[in-house]
Amino acid sequence: MTSKPVRTLLHVFPGFGPGGAQMRFANVANHLGPTYRHLIVAMNGATEAVRLLAPELKVKLLTVPVQFGNSWRNLKIFAQTLRRLQPDLLVTSNWGSIEWGIANWAARLPHLHLEDGFSGEEAQRQFSRRVWTRRLTLRRSIVVVPSRTLYRIARDTWRIPASRLLYVPNGVDCDLFTATGDPADRAAAGIPDCDVPLVGTVARLSPEKNLHRLIDAFARVLREERRACLVIVGDGPERDSLTEHVRAKGLESFVVFTGRWPNPERLLPFFSVFALSSDTEQMPLSILEAMAAGVPIAATDVGDVREMLSEQNRDFVVERDNGMLASAITRLLDEPDRARRIGAANAHRARERYSQSKMFSTYHELFDGKLLRAEQLGRVRD
């Protein structure tokens, strides 16, 4: 029997450091196994997320010269690279890789573009230049989005035809989040073993996550004479700024930065409340993970967050305001029985709506090229 030929996929990321898009790719690739040959380009040279990939996968990191600010030169190099490699599928990720989509107009390879949301610069409004670039570049690609909010933007603002647009919600391995917390993990993360509730978040320390807002909101919680500790899991470019902000607020004894943590599911069981303070999100994996762990959530009303949560939790999704976020956190801390019921409802909803199985099967079909025609795409659209 002749074995099925291995398909080569060229994945282009703005950066292949830790992040939601990179984690989703790793989860999908690890699940599908060595079925594909993955070529990975990180535009900024960051490749730390490669450690998330299983060793048995067929993976190769490629170095392609990028000259930021010189689009014409980049387009020529990218087009040459595509013609030389001739992958079975080009997979681009977010705005930072859009030039590869433009270059592909010459190579004419099957193209899958994954759009997860916006960095801080587009958090408040869509830039007309980027709207037109997406509109023209992606009109014959397949565009995949993880949130209904982003689906509406892609359809109505970017004018991606419905026949080329697919909503695929993120999923998590709910079974990973059922264990109780191990005190050894708590100690290793530097979280004090004290009898106070923990307000926690898991996030890249970057501007769009607006963790300054969370620190300010937490300061208000403490001002009302409540004993609590804030745990910030993650790392990123704003680490020094946030540390200084904590110091300026006099909160050094109440805030813990764990740094990058490889297994956040081991820390989530210790949280009394999970907090999200972002200015922009679409369908954050951190929210799904907190839901799967049975944690109640106080969050800003961004992207699909309100719709993702259990109905009982939606009263704690608030405007992007320090005081309102502080109030949501305070109410959950003040009503622990209600908070536990909300957490249980979140866990049930995560398992019911956001398991990984559907996400895996859809990406399998996309990677195999089975959903690259409009008539096939329509049958899986949610």
User: Could you tell me how far the N terminus lies from the C terminus, measured between alpha carbons in angstroms?
Assistant: 37 Å
Low-confidence segments, ≥5 residues, pLDDT <50? 378-382
CATH class of the largest domain: Alpha Beta
**Whole-number average pLDDT?**
90
Overall number of domains: 2
Q: Largest sheet, if any? A: 7 strands, parallel
Count of strand segments = 13
What fraction of residues sit in β-strands? 15-25%
Shape: globular
| Spatial ordering of strands, largest sheet | 3-2-1-4-5-6-7
- Following the backbone from N to C, one meets helices and strands in this order, namely EHEEHEHEHEHEHEHEHEEHEHEHHHH
- Reported by name, the CATH topology of the largest domain is Rossmann fold
Structure explained in plain terms:
The chain folds into two domains: 190 residues, Rossmann fold (3-Layer(aba) Sandwich); 180 residues, Glycogen Phosphorylase B (Rossmann fold), CATH 3.40.50.2000. Strand 9, helix 8 and strand 10 form a beta-alpha-beta unit. The chain contains 14 helices and 13 strands. It has 382 residues and is α/β, with parallel strands linked by helices. The strands form two sheets. A seven-stranded parallel sheet has the order 3-2-1-4-5-6-7, sandwiched between helices. A six-stranded parallel sheet has the order 10-9-8-11-12-13, sandwiched between helices. It starts with 6 loop residues before the first strand and ends in a 5-residue tail after the last helix. Helix content is 38%, strand content 16%.
